Amino acid sequence: MIIAQELELQQNISADVIFPPSDLYSDEPTVETELHLEQIMLLIKCLKWLWKDRYDFYAAGNLSIYYSPNQKKSEYFRGPDFFVVLGTERKTRKSWVVWEEDGKYPNVILEILSPSTANTDREYKKELYQNTFRTPDYFWFDPYTLEFAGFHLVDNKYQPLEPNEKGHLWSEQLGLYLGIHQGLLRYFTPAGELVPTPEETAEEETKRAEQESERAEREARKAERLAAKLRELNIDPETI
What we know:
The protein is an alpha+beta fold. Helices cover 31% and strands 20% of the residues. A 6-stranded mixed sheet has the order 1-3-5-6-7-8, with helices on both faces. A 3-stranded antiparallel sheet has the order 9-10-11. The longest helix is centred in the C-terminal third of the chain and has 35 residues, at 198-232. The protein is elongated and about 95 Å long. Mean pLDDT is 84; it is low at 1-11.
């Protein structure tokens, strides 16, 4: 039974108010397009792979954030497309319930723009994340038009981030750049190197192993040719 159904069975409680237990399921709609889903999964996968040895963060996408026991379901708000909370336990959750997480809000939020959500992401959500969440880093990205913008909280106001020479924006909270690579938003190290996916890492390791094997084979053939030449000259290769 979902929360709304439970509330309808209780007297004197409006079904429009979220009941405040901690065990709340996410109540997000499905993502709008396959490209939106790919982008969300890419951000989560790359960060978890980069931080595979860390257990002090939570990264999720298209997940409800419940920030007030009196929060109304009818309010024009859905969970962020992607967010990261630092200084918390790395574990699976049904949703992010602020009052059950020591009052922690996301440190980083990214919204993926679409024609139906762009105005909300640029205006209402930006104001909410600035004034209520106090989220230090906020970004939005449109995978179709490639519109990309970022903001950092300074004196309780979002200030636009200036891109570097590559067009990347710095996330102080993540210690990483975000930038467009092959039409999708990716992470880059402070040195500007692309943060790989697990698959890209495996592919690169396979390529390095193949190159090392080829190098070893070349060295072996070179040694064999040298040994043969020495034998022609009646020189024992073992004496060299």
